[in-house]
Input
Amino acid sequence: MTDWPFKQLVFNEKTPEEMHEAAQTFYDQIRIRRTVREFSDRPIPREIIENALKAAGTAPSGANMQPWHFVVVSNPEIKKKMRAAAEQEEKEFYEHRASEEWLKALEPLGTDTQKGFLEKAPWLIVVFLKKFTFDEQGKRHKNYYTSESVGISCGFLLCALHQAGLATLTHTPSPMKFLNEVLDRPKDERAYMIIVAGYPDKNATVPVIDKEPLNKIATFKE
Output
């Protein structure tokens, strides 16, 4: 038996009918989410972003180490610096780093080196992966399953922002070390993803692409 305290689980059980309705409702809501690259500069209240981040912070993580840190940027000057650095990395990516196969795979999405959304969208959420956690005495503790944990948290965050009525974009310039410098983050943290959030531009378009059907992405063994 463990010496750590436990408490009674709070679990709101649903009937099979309620479960079916809830699952169908969530699917109907999340399936219309699209990655947006054309954003409006219309302001979004900070409280909306805060609540989405609190939802992201509830994600499960290895040994409950919660190996994430979110840097939320609305400052125009910082966004300008982020865009300049990201576009420099993207130029290298498209011209030198990416293979022909990779570039071919990106063609249907219409991506290029221009990342204007980093300046125009009202909020940029930079997700950092923390390799270590430091306690109140400054002692360093290793975090576990960091990539898996941070990935789950990002999924929670995207769902929360979508549920709130915001458009989002996951942006991962490669490499992203410049973000530690621009955002003054420790070297032992690794930039994992930039999540762009806001209203879509009124003339925003998205590529005509499909998602694989259930029988292509899942196998049932009953």
In short: The mean pLDDT is 95.
